[in-house]
Amino acid sequence: MLTIPLVLLFGIVLALLLRQRALGAGAAAVAILFGFYLASTGARHTINQLITSLAHALGH
Prior knowledge:
Layout: H1 6-19, H2 25-39, H3 43-59
């Protein structure tokens, strides 16, 4: 079971990439918008199940 919300984790990773200039501001905006729009599609259930399964597998 994850204790850190994945949104927070992805936000931290994105912030670190921006700080190290491994990702430009434009690419970060595209990544955020992609995630936002992806969450409103039918793929969100599949992605959620995949992430939950991976988190469960890593927990054991």
